[in-house]
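Self-study notes.
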Amino acid sequence: MRVALFIPCFIDQLFPNVGIAVVNVLRRLNLEVDYPAAQTCCGQPAFNTGYWDEARQLARRYREVFAGAEAIVCPSGSCTAMIRNFYPQLGVTPPAIYELAEFLVKILRVTDVGAKFPARVTYHDACHALRELRLKDEPRQLLRKVRGLELVEMNEAETCCGFGGTFSVKFPMISFAMDEVKVKSIQQTGAQYVVSGDSSCLMQIDGYLRRYKVPVRTISLAEVLASIE
C-alpha cells in the first residue's frame, strides 16, 4: 500500500522529528510513503479565526496537492479533523485522510508496530482527536503493545490542555489555568512522560513543565511508536 504523508505546520516548523518518526513507523510496516513537497497549511488557523475565503483557497490547494492519493496519514487529530469534518463547510470535498493511530488500528488493523520504550507514561487526549474524530482507545491500544512501556491513566486525560490554537493567545490567563489543571493531573500519575497524538498540545504542556521545572517530559505518540531501543 502506498500512503501520502501530510505534515502539519507545527510539526514542519518546530517538531520535525515527529514527521520522521511517522515515516519510520510506516516503512517498518512495509508501506510506501509519498511526501508531496508542494503541501502547505490545511487552512485551520484561518478557518478558526473567521477568514473563510482564505481557508477555502488553502483547502482547494490541498485537494490539488493530494489528488490521487489512496490514503493520507497525518500525525495530528487537529488537522485531520479540519480536513475531514470542516472542509465540507467550505464547499470542498475532503480526501481520504486518517490520523496516525486511527490509520494503524482501524485501517491496517495493527496494534503492535515493534516498538520498545521502557518508561512510565500517561496519555493526553487532544480535543479534536477525541471529540471530532472519536478516537479514544486507538492510541492506547498501540501504547499497550509497546515493549517496556507502562501506561498510567490520569484523571484529567480528556480535559483540554488550554492551547486551542489562537485561544491561548486571545485568552492567556484562562489557557494558563487549564494547563495548570492538566499538569497537576499528569504529576499525580508519577509518569516520566506525557504522550499525545498532537504536537501542539504537547508544546502547550511542555511550556508549563519547563517554566515550573516539573520533572516530566513530553513525547509524541509517533516518536514512541518509532522507538526500538
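Second protein, same conventions, sequence then structure:
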Amino acid sequence: MKIKNLFFSIVIAGFTFTANAQTDADALRYSQSSIAGTARFTSMAGAFGALGGDYSSIAINPAGLGIFRKSEFSISTSLYMSNTTTDFLGQSATENKFNFNIPNFGFVFTHLTAADKKGEPGWKSVSVGIGMTRLNNFHSHSFYESLNKDNSLLNHFVETANGTSSLDPFYEQLAFDAGLIYPENDSSDIYVSDMGEPGTYPITQRRSSTTRGGISEWDFSLGANYNNLVYLGGSIGITSLRYLEESIYSEEDKANIIPVLNNYSLEQDVTTSGTGVNLKLGVIVRPAEWVRIGAAFHSPTFYANMRDDYKNIIRSSLENIPTSPAESPDGSYEYSMVTPLKAVGSVAFIIGKTGLISADYEFIDYSGSRFDASDASFSGVNDEIRTKYTAAGNLRLGGEYRLDAISFRAGGGLYGSPFSTQRKISGSDYSKTYLTGGIGIRDKNYFIDLGYAYSESNEYYQPYTLLNNVAVAGSKNKVANHNFTITFGVKF
C-alpha cells in the first residue's frame, strides 16, 4: 500500500496517525461541499431545493428544471479568498490565499408542449440541462510557529522506526539518511535521536501549507412540468476531483542547546485526482400558488479511479556533520472511494410578485464514506470513518425581494459538525456558518447578478502522535472564506 504523504492532514480529536493508507480526513474532505454556483444561488445561501428556475438548483434538486419556461445560458466568475488564523502554543498567525475560478456555466433547453400552448391540462414543458458546477474549493494557506517544550516529530520518527526490519523509504528511511535518527548500536533495531526522550529539549516548530484544487461536477439533467403542479427531475453527475498540497514542516534549535542538531525540514507534496459518478432524483410539488415543497435524493458518488502522486524530502543541518537532502522516490497509488448519500427536503413561499422565502434541510451521514483497492485492505480506515464521523444536518435559508427589475437577496446556512460526540473538540468541531447576500437585474431576455458568501469554521490540526497517549500540541484554526460571484445570463 502506498505511503501516505499527507499525514499532516487537518484532523480532529481521536486522530490515529497512519503513514501507509488513505486517511479518514481524506474521506471527510471529499464528502463535503460548499455554497457556490450562480450569483443568485450563492446570495440566497443555495436554498433552491423547492425553488428551481436557476441552473445551480440542479445541484440540489434536478426537479427545478421543470420550473424553467424559456431556454437559458448562464456563466459565472468568482473571486475566492481563504483566510486562516492559527493558534499554536499561544502564538497566532494569519495567512490568505486567493483564487479566481468559474463556479458555474450551463445551458437549459426548454420545450413547451402543445398542451401548454393550448392551455390544456397535462405535461406543460420538458427541459434538458447541461453544465458544470463547482462543488468545493480547496484553496488555502496556513502557517504556524512556536516553541514546543514537550516533544518533537523526531520522537515520532523513533517510535515508528523501532523494531522494524526495514525502514519506510518515504518516511523513517529519510530521517535516517538525513542523520536525524540512528540505531543505538550496530546490531540494534532500536533507534534514538539527538532530541532524546520527549521533554528533554525545547525546539521551535513551524509549518507552512498551501492547498489548491477543488471538486467540479458536470450534470446531464432532465426535468418536466406536469400541469404546473408537479415537477420531476433527474440528473447524472460526472464529478472531477483534484487536490494538491505542498507543505514544509521544520524544527530548529534556536537556543543552540541540542547536541549535533541545528535544524531540519520535511517537505511533502501530494496530488490527488479522481473522477466519479452519481445520480440525483427530485420532485417539487406546488399545492398552491404561494408554496412549493421539494424533496431530492443524491446517490453516493462512486470514484472508481482515484490516484495519489506523492514525494517527500528531508533537509537537515547537523553540527560539524555534512548532510545532503534525503529524497524519496516518486510514489503513486490507485484506489477507489465512495462518498455518502444525501437527502434534501425543501419548502419555499412565494410572496406575490415581490419576493420569496426558501429553506432547505440536507441530511448527510459522513460515516458512510468508504475506501477500497484491489491490492490492499482498508478495513482499518473504514472502521475509523464509521467510528469518528456521524450524520449531520445542513440548514440553508434564503430570501429575495423584487423592486421592478432589481432584486435584493440574502441568506444564511448552518452546517452541522461531521464528528461523533466522543471525537469532537469543543470549539473546533468543523461545523460551518454561512452569511450571504447579493443583488440582481433581470429583464425578459437577460440577467446580471452579483453575489457574496462568507463562511466560517473552526478546525483542529495535530502534526503527529506519540505512543502511550503522550500529549502532542495541535493548532486551532479559524477558517474564514469570502466568495464574490458575478453571473451573466441570457434567455431565448
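Instructor comment on the second fold: The first strand starts at residue 72 and ends at 88.
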